[in-house]
Amino acid sequence: MEINRTYEMLSRSEKVHPDEPDIFQLGQIGLSNLLSNLRRCSLKSWIKENIKKKECCFYVQTEREGFCKCGYPKDYHVEEAIMPERFLGQSWEGEKHMREVPTDAFGDIDFGGLGQNMGKYVRVSSDTPSDVLYHLITEYWKLRPPNLLISVTGGAKNFYMRTHLKQKFRRGLIKVAQSTGAWIITGGTHTGVMKHVGMAVRDYTLSSSSARGEIVAIGVAPWGTVHKRQSLVHPEGCFPANYTLDEQSQGRLSCLDSNHSHFLLVDDGTHGQYGVEIGLRSCLEKLIGEKPLGNRESHVKIPVVCVVLDGGQGTLNTIYSAMLNGTPCVVLEGSGRMADVIANVAGKPVSQVTLALIQRHMKRFFGQEYESFSEIKVIEWAKKIQDIIRMPHLLTVFRMDEDKNSDVDVAILQAFLKASRSEENAGQRGWERQLELAVAWNRVDIAESEIFTEESQWQSGDLHKAMFSALVGHKSEFVRLLLENGVSIPQFLSEEETLCELYTTMPSCLFLRKLVKRLQGDKRRRSLASPCQRRQVSLATVAEVVRQLLGSFTQPIYSLPPSHELIKMADENLDNTVIRDPGRDFFLWAVLQNNRELAQIAWEQCRDSTAAALAASKILKKLAQESENDDEEDANDMRELANHYEKQAIGVFSECHSWDDQRAQRLLIRISPSWGKTTCLRLALEANDKSFVAHSGVQALLTQIWYGELAVDTPPWKILLCMLFSPLIYTGFITYRRDEDIEREALRKEEMVAMESVTGSSGDARMKTIFSDPQDSDELKPLSCRARLGSFYAAPQVKFFWNIASYFGFLFLFSIVLMIDFQSMPSWREYLLYIWLTSLVFEEVRQLFDDPDGFGFRRKARMYINDLWNILDVASILLFIIGLACRFDYSVIIPLKVTRYHLCHYPEFFALPCRWTSSTFYAGKVILCIDFIIFCLRLMAIFTISRTLGPKIIIVKRMMMDLFFFMFLLSIWVVAYGVAKQGILIHNEERLDWIIRGAVYEPYLIIFGNVPTNIDNAEFDISTCTVNGTDPMRPKCPMLNANQMPAFPEWLTIIMLCVYLLFANILLLNLLIAIFNYTFQEVQDNTDTIWKFQRYELIKEYHSRPAAPPPFILLSHIYLLLRRFIMRQRPQKHKQFRQRLSKTEEEELMSWETFMRENYVSTQRQEKSESMERRIQDTADRVGSMSEVLEREHDRGTTAKRLVQLEEQVSQSAKALQWIMDTLKAQGYQSKEEPPSMSRSTESEGHEHEIDGETEKRQYHFHARSFLYTGTNKKRFPVPEEKVPWEVDFTPYIAEVYSAEPINEAEQLTLDNYKNPGGRTGIRGRGALQSLGPNPILDPVLTHWQDKDHSVLQFLAVWNEVEGCWSMPGGALKPGEPLPSRLKNLLGDKLYQRIKAKLGDGSRHNTVYEGYADDPRNTDNAWIETTVLNIHLDSTGSLMNELNRMVATSQMLSERIQWREVSSKTPVYTYQREALRLVAKLHQTQF
Predict the structure, then answer these.
(1) Sheet containing strand 149-154, strands side by side
(2) pLDDT band for position 1421 (50/70/90)?
């Protein structure tokens, strides 16, 4: 039964309105569909359990027959609602007569049309908890928590907006949503501001790829106003529901906007009622704003910003409520109506924003609609607008004529940052909070303009959290910005835990999979699937995987545990000491995840930049090789990045080589401690970076090694002469490098002496230190005669020449033996040949086991086998041994004392062995002859060192590979024609040799012009063949007819021959020529590079080769064996390829390389900025900016504003002229004529300024005029700013009477006797106060100095949860008590008595303020008057210690007390802020 129900749900979910379940459909559903159906079932069950809708349960007919007061017709009500017995005698009330039932509208909504817009929707009750909706959105709709919430509000009806402003709004809204990962919340319908948001989303969707991500636009609309909502209703959900927009017939209802992605349809049980969603939307926005940013434990909450366009009364209420909740608002000037009213009064003093001014603006922007507004509504709106103006930190106006707000996205983000600066944590913590937001938004421009300013002071440690977030989020531009503003990579990665955490949070990539695989092997199948398991990533594991990628020739870059197998190996080559290099760690982390931008930034932070680039090339090529089967695109990206870093290495090395070639060469062979104790040259070779190895600087180093101690410009003929006549070495006939160094040093000293004689100084010591060669400090001495002789014969080039001569001698001797002296008994020449070959064999064995680079025998053997020339060597030696074995079979069987006499006189005795051994003897000679060919081919490897022949040999090797594939194609045609011809001509040939001759050999010869005669009857001769195939020396005759002539169809064989010649001779041979031509053209460009790359191996081979040539090299081999196994000495490492520098030399070389890298990077940037592409881009940007300026000038209507500016200038000019005339009169200058009037109303203007000044100085109470009386739902009568004083006439003022405790009639009659000295409050009565008239309280301010320098003054504050601010621990006084009882309740009786005693003993206390207090409890007839008393405490006294303990324990209590700074940034009541200012003035500290 349960399975059947599951099947039923699965099948139903495939239909919008299923009739019957179709179980057989399950067999056609794939795995993805099945999982989707399961998710839908889970969504259905959760929604039915948690999401409700509302329906009317009491039908009361209105004037409209058949319709209930809820707006729905009678037939929409359930039966019990039509005849409700329990509601008899009651009147219909909306909230009371609604009930919640499970919702019946949810699922996917399909709008159809272009792009097949799809969305998700659900019908929810207006009383649905916000946390339930948030859970639905994030868990079931799978939306990631936002980094920013943009609430767009405004006109619900269609309104006109200027084209340029509309484009700005749409582009800016999408930009901020796309860059920050924001959610956009609107009303969700296809009208007004919601339509503009939808069009912005549509433009983005049509113009962008899916890879850029979807814009989340959530529409919160009232269910009762949705047109065609019945198509969304189904108890089991609609997947999807087909919804079409029909604006023609919607009437008072509204269609949903097709460009929104999600819809929350709020149902309060009514039909046609707008605004029912406002409460739920506000609660949802508030809940989202309380969630931590990034879905993690963070002190930063998700920021919420309200964007306002157009709008009316509802929009004003939304703005007012949002700003009271601390939500910043962005108002777009020019969008119309309420938005323009607020924009025009924003920035002005509250005293100037009068009711009359607001009325004028409303008449202007609302037009005829203003006539329908009541006077009370206008007063209420004016009051709210004034309150909004009082919060400038929460209000941002986007004006098109201001360059600073040229983009809406910038204005939106700046609005929240501006609001956050005014909060309590506006210090360094506030800057850090803003930076974290900017990183989450990925807005570098905001961080540059708003955060990294002169006001903010940043230390490296302050930016580490933001740096980690930027790295994990792969925000490369932010990483660069943070580095530019003080982040130190060594400090950031000083702890290993930070680096481990970076590897733990690494995104999915091939390296992470390898890391997981390694950990699974180490932990016995324990994976990293869960977050807790991913913490197992350690640097030791990373080091193992990196070593696999770099190669076994490197050492681990991080420390390994003592139990590791590499540590246990008793190998002296392994140096387990590692050096922490944070720059290397940063770069390696970025490269391993194939992040190009981050890797480039990290590379610029590396000290060992050349080695880092080459190591990155090696790692990326290895990763690309392993991932090409799984993800070819990713593999191509890795190869591209590897080539990029090879170019970077070439660029840095070229810069170094151009400055100092000797130091650059030392950079190549220096052992890098950061990259596994290897060298740059070794890394380049292992990474197959041919272009780097082919660099002139690298080749110069190889050439220097090739010449040994000889000068690199020594001609070869001089070397050959010295080889033939050794005494020439001592005559100076050839030059050594030591001689050149001595001459260079002497010349440099002469130049320095000359410079000192001219300048009179010894030069800049710092430049000497940086650019001096450490080797210069050693005094150079000429080589001795013995050293000259040893250096000459130890030079690889001299060894090469000797080995060439030796090899030619070996081939000459081999040819003599094969052609002249190959006897049954080996001669002395043949024995010499065997010794010679033995020396070659021993040399090959030595090369196989010689491992100066520490590759290990396995890798060394694999490298040996992969070399083609080594394969030829092994093949030639094996063939020689086989031939030698066959050759010696005969010699061993014949007795040594048998002579030719015995063979002639006793042939019957030796007949059998001679017949048997003669065949093997001759076979051995044949094998040796073939082996001679291979030995001759081996000559090509010797001449690869030649600059002329070397590249040609490479081309020959490539052409041989092409020829192999060509022979495969050719063999198809040869065999096809040969078998067909043989089958037609010859019947049942049984001799294998003649079958091969006819089917393969003869067709192959045809290609070279040997046209066969057996296919033509005219040339047939029966005497040249055998009829039955009995004669082994003649071919078998073709099938004959009765006339003894061939019976095969002559026409067919001729046609087959023509076709064969056409394809084989013409097509295939020309194809071969074309292939060779293509190969030559392709390889020719890279031949020089390939030759230079392969040249290294030959140079290294002869550098490590013993000096003596074969066969004398056997003596060197014997010496090496004795030294290794008898004397137990380690093999010597070649300093020419690996050089370990001292710490001082290392630091100097790295500093020099860093300087060169910075030069290279700056040159690169300059070239990029001067490139044609960059110039075109800059030109396009400038043209775009000019176009925007022109459009802005056209749209703003500049004429009127210019006239206003002109009037202002004329007025200023008139005042200036008036001042000039007054000055001249004062100096006694008079005119015959009366001066003209410079201003029509100068006096009146002055009078107005005076009035404005007086008005601006006077401030009225604000908290006492809040719209809702504190703690109640009672509304105050709105009192605008200028109507507060009692003396100002305010005819419409009718305040409601409210008292928390009932008042008698006598008090009611005496209300007018008490008037609030602060003015009108909007409510009469006693309110929450105890008595009419003044209610005195005492606000004690307990202060102390935080530090000994008396720089920070603090006071004891209590957190007011209701008001969201700090307050003083004050209250009403009891009779006979000097302090309020609230202080006693907070601190306890003991502390209360001690503070009370301080007042009595004459301790320092001052009354800083007495008078009216702006309190939200005030009314027209009852108000609070306070006395602020400052009690200053000694910071070192026992009373302070007890107070500090009380503060610490109060953090867990309902009323939290804390020491807060006496500062204007501390949020307190208005009157208490003024009191704190007086306290700060009293103690002479800054407020």
Answers:
(1) 238-242, 106-112, 117-125, 262-267, 216-222, 183-186, 149-154, 304-309, 329-332, 395-398
(2) very high
Q: Which two tokens stand for residue 1021?
A: 């001769």
Torsion of Cα atoms, 262 then 268 then 270 then 273, to 10°: -60
| Whole-prediction pTM | 0.73
Question: For residue 316, what are its two tokens?
Answer: 């004003």
Q: Residue 74 is which amino acid?
A: K
Cis bond upstream, residue 1012 (ω within 30) = no
Residue 1445 exposed, middle or buried by CB count within 10 Å (0-12, 13-18, 19+): exposed
**Degrees to nearest 5, angle at CA 33 with 32 and 39:** 95
76 burial via Cβ count (<10 Å: 0-12, 13-18, 19+): middle
CB 887 within 8 Å of CB 879? no
CA distances from 433 to 288, 322, 323, 427, 475 (A): 18, 21, 20, 10, 18
Q: What type of residue is 1302?
A: P
Distance CA 18, CA 1290 (A): 67
Cα four-point dihedral sign 132, 133, 138, 140? positive
In tens, the pLDDT along 752-811 reads 788 777 765 544 444 444 444 444 444 667 888 888 888 888 888 888 889 888 888 988
Could you give the angle at which helices 582-592 and 496-504 cross, rounded to 10 degrees? 0
Whats the size of the chain, residue-wise? 1487
Q: What is the DSSP string of 486-537?
A: T--HHHHTSSHHHHHHHHHTPPS-HHHHHHHHHHHHHTTS--S-SHHHHTT-
Instruction: Give the 3-state secondary structure of residue 674.
Output: coil
Q: Taking Cα atoms as reference points, which of 232, 224, 172, 227 lies closest to residue 196? A: 172
With helix as H, strand as E and coil as C, how does 288-312 read? HHCCEHHHCCCCCECCEEEEEECCC
Number of Cβ atoms within 10 Å of the Cβ of 1299: 20
pLDDT tens readout for residues 187-229: 999 998 999 998 888 888 777 654 446 789 999 999 999 998 8
Q: How far is CA 658 from CA 39, 696, 864, 1093, in A?
A: 65, 11, 36, 21
Tokens linked to 1229: 């200058």
pLDDT of 344-399, one tens digit each? 999 888 888 888 899 999 998 988 888 888 889 999 999 999 999 988 888 999 88
Instruction: Dump pLDDT digits (tens) for 1333-1377.
Output: 999 888 898 888 888 878 888 898 888 776 677 888 888 877 777
- Three-state secondary-structure class, residue 1299: strand
Cα–Cα distance measured from residue 192 to residue 154, given in angstroms and rounded to the nearest whole number = 8
- What pLDDT is recorded for position 736? 86
3-state secondary structure of 335: coil
| Distance of alpha carbon 721 from alpha carbon 603, whole angstroms | 51
Which of 49, 47, 45, 51 minimizes the C-alpha distance to 6? Answer: 45
Separation between Cα atoms, residue 1328 and residue 1339, nearest integer Å = 18
Q: In this structure, what token pair is assigned to residue 334?
A: 């020019």
Name the residue with higher pLDDT: 1204 or 65: 65
Any idea what DSSP says for residue 629? T
CA distance 1418 to 1412: 10
CB 1376 within 8 A of CB 1404: no
d(CA 707, CA 1380): 99
**Three-state helix/strand/coil letters over 47-59:** HHHHCEEEEECCC
| Under 8 Å between Cβ of 247 and 190 | yes
Higher-confidence residue of 1200 and 705: namely 705
Identify residue 243 by its one-letter amino acid code: Y
CA distance 340 to 343: 5
**Closest C-alpha among 1477, 1472, 1485 to residue 1366:** 1472
Helix (H, G, I), strand (E, B), or coil: what is residue 969? helix
What 3-state class would DSSP assign to 1053?
helix
DSSP characters for 920-950?
A: HHHHHHHHHHHHHHHHHHTHHHHGGGSTTHH
